[in-house]
Specification:
43% of the residues lie in helices and 13% in strands. With 479 residues, it is an alpha/beta fold.
Length: 479
């Protein structure tokens, strides 16, 4: 679907009274780089189409510009945020760091700071925080550190979130971005948005897209760390003008835990979309596959508990003419690349980088099956309604989906997929096999069912109006 058709679709569903819109400036505050965040992209596109200015205040990563104008009309401003940069005595650390790099350069006669450009304000990216290791880099042997070093490292790990936030808040403040409304994305975005909103005396929205105390690293936290994280989030929610989230189950949990008015639900649906006919063969072209090969697509984060390991196992026993494509990025990418290069997956599992949100549905629509066997490892996962569920529906691709409370009701209602036990590779295999064995007519009938559900109820056009109305209520001027 083209950008023009995205804009037209959004325009056709604008609320009544749009003619009285007052041009304003929305600042979306992201804890990530702004490259692949579909929700932020959709919000920005809608606001740009309505005549507003939008800035994404994002986090810098090596290889990306600190500032750029996105082709879709919004501006991205990136700032550094790292644990090391959040430590006290910033100027002293900067001077010491420069001195060490000079001494190293004199000793080795090499570049003083290759690969670590200075951020605005003089800070340098620390390894692993904003910088990416070159592909194929050789790891040095790891020697066990002394007890004091290990204790220091453990303390830094526990302080990583507050120190990173300290760095991000300070650098965001120095970036000079001001807005009429700040929209803070996620647990690590809202404190930055609140700081800027307090400075500019404007409203701040907290977009709580997960139950963060039940997600990823925080789900494993215990004791005082968990208590402090929960207390911090309650404070941020209380200071926000409005909390919003992505589904009703999350809203119910957050209302109780964050002790706020029940969050506004704006589901993470995709734009209405019409896939190309005949179907494009992008994955076949990219990986040189036989045109008859059926594509099973996993797209999203390459992280633990997403069911990707189970997908590898499910591939064993499927016909040779079925290939698995992992499209995304994350900490498990090196491990999955290693596996994909070994028997029995060599030539049957392929990895590729994430694609920009504007191109995503065009890629998803080329798959035969969208797989999302997310594991029931946390409350957050059990109640999730992930982007990929709605993206598969919008692209008209049948899905193999975890039989978990958040997703099961939507899949059952729409008939958009097959529910499976996500911990059972054999069940996943049977569901994939059922879809790839369909003849063309039956598969196209399934596609039409998915598209009908996306167009009727589960589309961004049916969701965005309530967000626009809330913006207007908060600023007192129509958006």
């Amino acid at each position: 679907m083209t950008e023009a058709s995205h804009e037209t679709a959004a325009t056709n569903e604008r609320p009544a009274g749009t003619g009285s819109v007052v041009s304003q400036h929305l600042v979306l505050v992201l804890p990530a780089t702004g490259e692949f965040d579909s929700r932020s992209y959709r919000i920005a596109r809608e606001l740009i189409g309505r005549g507003h200015r939008v800035t994404m205040l994002a986090r810098w990563k090596a290889g990306l510009p600190f500032e750029e104008d996105d082709p879709n009309g919004y501006r991205i401003v990136r700032v550094m945020a790292s644990t090391a940069d959040g430590l006290p005595f910033r100027r002293l650390r900067t001077l010491v760091g420069r001195a060490i790099r000079r001494l190293y350069a004199l000793r080795t006669r090499g570049p003083r700071s290759a690969g670590t450009p200075l951020a605005p304000g003089g800070g340098a990216a620390s390894p692993g925080e904003g910088a990416e290791s070159p592909e194929g880099a050789v790891l040095r042997p790891v020697h066990r550190a002394s007890l004091p070093r290990r204790l220091w490292a453990a303390a830094i790990r526990r302080l990583a979130i507050p120190l990173t936030l300290r760095s991000h808040i300070r650098n965001a403040r120095e970036a000079g971005v001001t807005g009429d409304l700040y929209h803070g994305m996620a647990y690590m975005g809202i404190p930055i948005a609140l700081d800027l909103g307090r400075r500019d005396r404007v409203p701040v929205v907290y977009d709580a897209r997960d139950i963060y105390l039940e997600a990823r690293n925080l789900a494993r936290s215990r004791g005082i760390v968990r208590w402090a994280a929960a207390r911090a989030e309650r404070g941020w929610a209380a200071r926000s003008a409005r909390v919003i989230t992505v589904n009703d189950a999350y809203a119910d949990v957050m209302a109780e835990r964050l002790r706020v008015e029940r969050p506004l639900v704006v589901m993470n649906c995709s734009y209405r979309y019409e896939p190309a006919e005949p179907r494009e063969r992008r994955f076949h072209d990219r990986f040189g596959l036989n045109p008859a090969t059926k594509i099973v697509l996993y797209h999203g984060g390459l992280f633990p508990h997403r069911g990707i390991e189970e997908l590898f196992e499910a591939m064993i026993g499927l016909p040779d003419g079925v290939a698995l494509v992992l499209m995304g990025y994350g900490v498990l990418e090196p491990e999955f690349r290693r596996r994909a290069a070994e028997a029995p997956w060599l030539g049957r599992v392929h990895l590729m980088n994430a694609v920009p949100p504007a191109d995503l549905l065009d890629w998803v629509a080329c798959a035969d099956v969208a797989a999302m066997p997310i594991q029931a490892s946390t409350l957050n996962h059990r109640l999730t309604t992930p982007n990929k569920l709605f993206e598969a529906m919008a692209a008209g691709v049948p899905a193999v989906v975890s039989d978990l409370p958040g997703m099961a009701s939507i899949v059952t209602e729409t008939g958009s997929g097959i529910l499976v036990d996500p911990a059972d590779p054999a069940a996943i295999r049977r569901a994939i096999d059922e879809i790839v064995a369909l003849d063309d007519a039956d598969w196209l009938a399934w596609r039409r069912r998915c598209l009908a559900a996306a167009h009727d109820r589960y589309s961004w056009e049916t969701q965005v109006g309530r967000l626009i109305d809330e913006y207007g209520r908060l600023t007192g001027r129509p958006w």
